[in-house]
Amino acid sequence: MGFETIAEAAGVHLRIPEGTQYSFYDSPYVGHRNTTAIDIYFKNNEALLPVDEAKVKEIRWFNAPKYRVNGWDKEPLTLLDLGGNKVLKVLHVNPKVSVGEKLHLGDFFGECIVSGYLCPWSDSHAHFEIRPSKDPYRARGAFTLNIAPTIRKIKGTVCSSPRVFTVVEMGKYYMWVRPKGITNYLTALAVKVGNSLGYVDAGIPHYGLGGILLKDKVKASIGDAIYWDFMHLGYVTKTYPLSLLFIAPIEVFANSIKVRGIGTYINGKFLKVIFTDPTGEKPWKEGDEVKIKVMVSS
Asked: Are 258 and 206 in contact (CB under 8 A)?
């Protein structure tokens, strides 16, 4: 199994099996707004250690909300000692290790659960933060991630994504659709910000804010408009060296039918289209062609 480096912070490199899907910004939680957290969508929900080595320092459970009927009412938190007064904080993983156990890169250490914190359309994943060992628990205060290793994965020229997709999988709360005619991309949605092109890593508009990963140093300013093809997608709200945050005050339509929103993961070849009413009849089926349209809310 080959591993790729996707980010680093405080001298600690995060590595995952090649091709594994992950996200910095497709989440409503504060760590993802600050580029201090990452969600990794491991194959078969088997959480693997994403650092060279660590020692299990602490495992605790706390009460969780229940944003979905099948969500766990207890949330596991695992702290892994990285040495040098740093820890790796892990959420949404039912640990299969014991305090004091030493782990190495790629070691299985638990199963990603259906956390009560996840929305009904969310996929199970492991949430990671690299933190000072004296401040391991809070939502804020983790080390900022340098995402340059992910940016280097962008090959060639980034082209704006098409608006026509093919349905590849239907679920209860969402469907996966594949962009037609695009084979070289970091996520399934590329957009234009000023004179720059970048990849959307976000769930919009349902999470409020999202992120865009840019191949070159950010030249955008707060308030700049973002366009997908000729459609106005949103506005820049904050900039980082290689990414930006944006708000998308939009309504989304799939073949003229309004949906809740769209989402993307890094290394993901498909766009997630989230249904407005998961209990209603779905007018799409696998193999259908779907045209996605966004309109700024009035």
From this structure: no
Higher pLDDT, 161 or 157: 161
Model confidence, pTM: 0.96
The fold of 3-150 is Glucose Permease (Domain IIA) (2.70.70)
pLDDT tens profile 44-97 = 999 999 999 999 999 999 999 988 999 999 999 999 999 999 999 999 999 999
**What does DSSP assign to residue 84?**
T
Burial class (CB in 10 A: 0-12, 13-18, 19+), 165: buried
Report the candidate in 119, 136, 117 with the shortest Cα–Cα distance to residue 128.
136
Closest listed residue to residue 191, CA positions, set 41, 294, 39: 294
Handedness of CA 89, 95, 96, 99 (dihedral sign): positive
Alpha-carbon distance values, 124 to 90, 130, 184, 277 (Å):
13, 20, 26, 21
**Is the pLDDT assigned to residue 156 strictly greater than 70?**
no
- pLDDT score for 160: 66
The pLDDT, as a whole number, for residue 197 is 84
Question: Within 10 A of 288 (CB to CB), how many other CB atoms are there?
Answer: 15
Q: Which helix (H) or strand (E) holds 272?
A: strand 271-274
Q: Residue 209's CB: how many other CB atoms inside 10 A?
A: 20
Task: Give the Cα separation of 178 and 286 in Å (integer).
Answer: 11
Taking the domains of the chain in order of start, what are their residue ranges?
3-150, 154-296
The 3-state secondary structure of 105-120 reads CCCEEEEECCECCCCC
